[in-house]
Amino acid sequence: MFFERPASGERAVLVHLSISGEEEKQDPREFEELVLSAGGDPVAFVMGQRERPHSRYFVGTGKLEELATVVCDNEAEIVMFNHSLSPSQERNLERKLQCRVLDRTGLILDIFAQRARTHEGKLQVELAQLQHMSTRLVRGWTHLERQKGGIGLRGPGETQLETDRRLLRARIKSIMARLQKVQRQRDQGRRSRRRAEIPTLALVGYTNAGKSTLFNRLTESRVYAADKLFATLDPTMRRLELDEVGPVILADTVGFIAHLPHKLVEAFKATLEETVSADLLLHVIDCATEAREDNMFQVQSVLEEIGAADIPQLQVFNKLDLLEQSPRIDYDENGKPARVWLSAASGEGCDLLFKAIVELVGQDMVEHEVYLEPEQGRLRASLYRLGAVAAEQYDDDGVAQLSVRLPRADWNRLMKPGPEPII
C-alpha cells in the first residue's frame, strides 16, 4: 500500500530481541520459518537483549547503528521484527534505515493475504489488514507538507490523510456487513446440522502440525497441504460416514500460532465459530517437534480466547513416522480415548483414530431389534435415512424385522410422534 512490492523474494534482515521479564519468549526459528513462508530471503539475523523496548526505535541506539550497517552491507530491502511495533516505531525505523520495516503482525497478515483463496477468506484478510493499516497511514504521506497552525499554512498532507481515513472506514464498514452475511449463512448451516443431529468434528492445532494432510487422508480429499506455516486459511468441510455412528461433518480450520494477532482473531470470527460449535475437537499435534508442549499451550490459549476451551478434545499426535514408533491409543482414567498416535503422511494409525472417534461420538448409541408393520413405511424410511439399519428381514405376514443402531437422541425423536413400532 505504501511501498512498491517486488515480485520476487525480498532480501530481508531479521531482528529478534530477548526482553527481560517477558513471560512468553518468541521463537527465532519459527520467525525465520514465517519469513520463508512469506517468500522472503533472510540474509542476516540480528539478535540482542534489552531490559525493555526503546520507546522510539524498539532497539537501542547502538543496536540501531549495527542494524543500519547490516542493511547497507547486505543491500536488504526490508527489515522484519519478531515483535509488535507501534506505528511511530515503524515510522522512525524506516526513516533511519531507509527501507521498509515490518513487524510480526504485519508479516502474518501478509502470509494470510497470500494464502486466501475463497471470497470469504479474502474479505477476512482485507478487514484485518485495513484495521492494522489504519494506524499506520501517516508514514505513507511524509512526502507531503504537514498541517501547520495559522492562516495559509495548512498543507495538503493532513487533507489526504483524512481522505484516506474516511475511505478506510467506509471500506471496513462494507466488509463487516458482508462478513455478517457470511456469518448468518454459516449459522443457518449449523442449525440445519443440529436439527439433523449430525456431529461436527473440527481439526485444530498449531500451524504446520499436519491438519490438512490428515484431513485429506480421512476424507480422501485434495485440500491444499504443504510444509509451510499457514498453508490452510479457508475452512473446508466434508461429510464422513463412520461405522456405528453414521454421518459426521469434519472441518479443517486455520492453524494457530504463538501471539496470534488479535485483529486476525476478530476478522476470522465467522471461520473460528466452526470450531466453537463443534461437538469434538481433534487437536492435531506435531509430536516430532521440540516445541510440542509450548505449541499445545498456545493452541489452548487461542481456544480459550474464542470460547472453545470446554469442548471435548481428542489429541492426535501426528508425524509418528519421524519418531519410528508404533501407532496406539492412550486412554484416560475413565477408559475414554485421550490420545491417538499416528502418521497422516503414511496413513498408519488412521484406523485407530476412527475407532477413538466412534468411542467418543457414538458413546450414547442405542441398539434395538425393531418390528415394523407394512403401514409403517415412513418410519422405516427415516431409519434408513439416518443410516441406522444394520440388517433387515421379513416374515410371511410382511412384518419387517430391523436391527438398528443410532444415537439415543435420534431414537427418542423418532419414537415421539406417530405410531410406535413393535420392539
Automatic annotation (TrEMBL):
Annotated GTP binding sites: 205-212, 230-234, 252-255, 318-321
GO MF term set: GTP binding; GTPase activity; guanosine tetraphosphate binding; metal ion binding; ribosome binding
Cofactor: Mg(2+)
CDD domains (alphabetical): HflX
Keyword line: Cytoplasm, GTP-binding, Magnesium, Metal-binding, Nucleotide-binding
InterPro entries: EFG_III/V, G_HFLX_dom, GTP-bd, GTP-bd_M, GTPase_HflX, GTPase_HflX_N, GTPase_HflX_N_sf, HflX_C
Top-level taxon: Bacteria
Function: GTPase that associates with the 50S ribosomal subunit and may have a role during protein synthesis or ribosome biogenesis.
Annotated NCBIfam families: GTP_HflX, PRK11058.1
Quaternary organization: Monomer. Associates with the 50S ribosomal subunit.
Classification via PANTHER family: GTP-BINDING PROTEIN 6-RELATED (PTHR10229:SF0), GTP-BINDING PROTEIN HFLX (PTHR10229)
HAMAP family: GTPase_HflX
Protein name: GTPase HflX
